[in-house]
Amino acid sequence: MADLIKLENVEKRYVNGAVSTWVLRRISLTVEEGEFVTIMGPSGAGKSTLLAILGLLDAEFDGSYTLDGTAIHGLKPKLRGELAKRTIGFVFQQYHLLDDLTVAENLELPLSYRDMKGDERKGLVADTLDRFQIVGKKDLFPRQLSGGQQQLVGVARAVIAKPKLLLADEPTGNLHSEQGAEIMELFKELNRQGTTIIQITHSKENAAYGNRVVRLKDGWIAD
Amino acid sequence: MSELRQALRRLGRSPGFALLAVAMLGLGVGTNTAVFSLVNTLLLRGLPVPAPGDLLSLFQSNPKRGVERDVTSVPNFRDWRDQSTCFTHVSAVDPGQATLATPEGPEVLAITGVSASFFDLLGVPPVAGRGFRKGEDEEGAPLTAILSHRFWQSRFGGRPMLGSPITLDGRPFTVIGIAKEGLEVPVATDVYVPAIYPADSQRGALFLPVIARLAKGKTLADARTQLAAIMERIPSEKERGWTASAVPLAEDAVSDQRMSLLLLQGAVLLVLLIVAANLAALLLARAARKTRDGAVRAALGASRMDLAAPLLAEGVVLALGGWLFGLLLGRAFLAVLLVASPAALPAWARPVLDGRVLLVSLGAALGTALLASLVAIGQKVRSVPIEALREGSRATPSRGSRRAQAVFVVLELTLSVALLGLAGLTLRTLSNLATQNLGFESRTLLVANLLLPGAEFETPGARRSAVQALTERLSGLPGVTSVSGTTTLPLGGNYNDTVFGLEDRPDAPATEPNVTGVDQVLPGYFETMGMALREGRDLSPRSAPDPRASEVVVNQAFERRYFPGASALGKRVFFGPRADPRRAATIVGVVSDVKRESLRRSERPQLYFSYLDITPRRMTFVLRTALTPGELSSQVRAAIREVAPAAAITSVTPMDSVLGDNLTLPRFLAGLLTFFAVTALVLAALGLFGVLSTVVAQRTNEIGVRLALGAKPGDVFRLVTGQGLGLAAAGLALGVGLSLGLGRLLGGLLYGVSATDPTNLASVAAVLFTVASLACILPARRAASLDPVAALREE
């Protein structure tokens, strides 16, 4: 399989006056297309920072990062944004659905940022609602849904634009175990269909759904 | 559309924010709409006639004598009319008063004598009947009249009047037309009559206003050149130094209001800017609370434009709401303005919310809201979204956002200070105008304006007798301590000038005739008015037995100018040919100066003759009373009707209300500027309150630490108020600078106060710090009363 992600000696630090605080140190990591990788580690290990760099939300780092054959370091923000739109989907622990939008509108949101015509968007939203079996909820607002349902919508929103890479930050952290298992099954299915997944979790059960675990400690890869 | 729909939904979820934003925008847009509708009507739309820009006001001037502008004489008017090729029409516009005979007695009307071409010149034919025909403004023509629409409705109830006779000043006129509603150009009038003047009218008698319409292809410059050339060809005028020129009539018609209106428009634009700053601060605070939304959108692939779109959409929705509310407020403001100060505008000016006003107000609303939105957008798309996506992250404004909010508050305070400064200057001007020494005592003075029309008062003897009988009767009214009269009441809107010479200065008058104000007064006038007799004596209580024994009293300005360092008593003043002793008079007294033409204008040289020697048909009785002047009005009217039933009473009013009429425009300006300044200050205070509240919310934890470490509530209170007053001090410093700069623009609108007046600036500072302190109190008290344990729990 081809490499989807290649990190070499990636480092991240925060500078406050004369003091530098290192968050990530010499991270080298390769993820092939179709992998389901789990990042684990204690709080403050740098997991979320790594995920933000992988998701192109944070471009302030040292070292090199190649995503889907494109070198990120030095890439102009606009091109970086285009690459992110083409390649990446996000699932958050807090779901991060927009409160003022309905389920259907939340699903449509990423498509609206991708130069897609209105009819095409509507068709894709309808397909996704159907695929995730949430047609009946399409006009509801996030606060009218349970946590599990909200995360289901969050996952649907993350994959609606068919990203190659799905990044999930503690996707089941706010769910009870049964709902969490459902989401992980969904991830497994998406991975089986070809989506590369990188998840952050504290849960060994969830890690078991993936095929590789990367451990971080104090900003270093522990293994 | 979906962005707008979603924006509407989001704002619906925050009704407090939305209502506050719409209310602020509405206030800014409403004040701008009201003032702009005045600017539009008076300065942009112009006179309500076709091609108003082609109408000119013609005048003559004499730079040598410092006369920038004067009306003209009948012969000059005829020369301009007959010799010019730049105009399609030239018309006299001679406003005055006349009495209409009615079954209830004579009624005083405003009449305007106009040339036969007047309605063709305006391009607005009468709506019923016809305009004047050629020849109807010549001596011997049948007397015709055209009623103004307003007068036709109010006096005759709109009933058919064409062909009906009316009696004006005892002469029969036939009504031949009804003018278009709202015409009132260039002056408001009840009745138009043909302006008929004798063939031998004198060139030196300057009393006639003239208007003209430019011919196609001709310019103002052409007209000026030609008028000057015509005057050059009149040997006597050239010799006396007179020339002629023209200005656009529209400009002329609003010369009093122009500066005030532009100033007010500037003031409301500052208010709008304050609204924009306040709205920007509100939107920044809201954007800070919605940081997570932006971060999520960015994570889902939103570009900068995509991130800006929701904020822009919210801006548009708020702008539309603010616009609609602003239109309602604007209509209300306008209605209040017109009711409160109807005399501040010319009669033809009827402000309406037309297409241009609607567009400008929409532009103002959109511009303000979008400007504020752009500021919030600038902050939002700059901020890094990562933190907002983390578990437990709090939606707090970034340091940049907080700094921006503080900058906006300082900006608001700066603009408020500038407006307060301007308002203070106009209030001081109003106060100075109203309380200055007028040279006479206006309180406890009642004035009664009369006309003595018709055959009954045809002869000077009849008028003299009537005036003497009226004086006697009015003196007998209870509460009246003295009665006298004048033909031109100070500040009453009428004044006459005369050309004169001095017997002991034979060189002066030949080429440089002196011009002075002239008035005819009854015996005891100076005493009744409360004017001081500085030298000599009052005019004789009897008419001069011999014309060569005519007497005149002069004012101190006359003496200062023509007899510097010497007494004017005993000197002879003559009028017309020097050799004619019948037109000379001896100065018998010198009285104090009074404000005669305007509250602002320094007193000019003035001559007072005895009414008993020269008896015009107009007379204003002045009554000094021990009662409140208004209480006497009905008794005065009754007494006049009893003694001279054929006399027409124009008005009976306290002198103070005559003064009030002179204060209309300064009061209008000061009132509006004060209102706008207070509005601005309230908005700025709200802004300060908002920023301090945000600061307290953000520093809760820090305040908890301070309290835990032993700070007293008073220390925390001072911490917060210190921050607020620091912003106020910055606003004051910048605002004073701005106020000084803007104050210079006021120039001629000020009276007795300068833009750098320290008292004014001190007052502004006191007001600002009082209001700023009030705005600080609530957030400071909230901070001081925080429970340290609870505050420390805040993360």
The assigned structural class of chain B equals: alpha+beta
Low-confidence stretches of chain A: none
The counted number of beta strands of chain A is 10
Q: In the CATH hierarchy, what is the architecture of chain A at level 2?
A: 3-Layer(aba) Sandwich
Helix content of chain B: 40-55%
Major sheet description of chain B: 11 strands, mixed
CATH homologous group name of chain A: P-loop containing nucleotide triphosphate hydrolases
Radius of gyration of chain A from CA coordinates: 18 Å
Rounded mean pLDDT of chain A is: 89
Give me the number of helical elements of chain B.
Answer: 25
Secondary-structure class of chain A: alpha/beta
Name the shape of chain B in a single word. Answer: elongated
Number of helices of chain A: 7
Distance N terminus to C terminus of chain A? Answer: 23 Å
Name the beta content range of chain A: 25-35%
TL;DR of this structure?
The complex is a heterodimer of chains A (223) and B (795). With 223 residues, chain A is α/β, with parallel strands linked by helices.
Tell me the layout of helices and strands.
The complex is a heterodimer of chains A (223) and B (795).
Chain A: E1 3-16, E2 19-32, E3 36-40, H1 47-54, E4 62-67, E5 70-71, H2 77-87, E6 88-91, H3 103-112, H4 118-131, H5 147-159, E7 165-169, H6 177-192, E8 196-200, H7 204-207, E9 212-217, E10 220-221
Parallel strand pairs in A: 3-8, 3-9, 6-7, 7-8
Antiparallel strand pairs in A: 1-2, 1-4, 4-5, 9-10
Helix pairs in contact in A: 3-4, 3-5
Chain B: H1 2-13, H2 15-45, E1 55-62, E2 67-70, H3 74-83, E3 87-100, E4 107-114, H4 118-122, E5 128-129, E6 144-147, H5 149-156, E7 165-168, E8 171-178, E9 191-194, E10 210-214, H6 220-232, H7 235-240, E11 243-248, H8 249-253, H9 255-289, H10 291-299, H11 304-340, H12 355-382, H13 386-389, H14 399-435, E12 445-451, H15 460-475, E13 480-486, E14 496-502, H16 508-511, E15 514-521, H17 525-529, E16 533-536, E17 551-555, H18 556-562, E18 572-574, E19 584-591, E20 606-610, E21 618-625, H19 633-643, E22 648-654, H20 655-662, H21 664-698, H22 700-708, H23 713-746, H24 758-784, H25 788-793
Parallel strand pairs in B: 4-9, 6-8, 15-20, 17-19
Antiparallel strand pairs in B: 1-2, 1-10, 1-11, 3-4, 3-10, 5-8, 6-9, 7-8, 12-21, 12-22, 13-21, 14-15, 14-18, 16-19, 17-20, 18-19
Helix pairs in contact in B: 1-11, 2-9, 2-11, 2-12, 9-12, 9-14, 9-21, 11-12, 14-21, 14-23, 14-24, 15-19, 21-22, 21-23, 21-24, 23-24
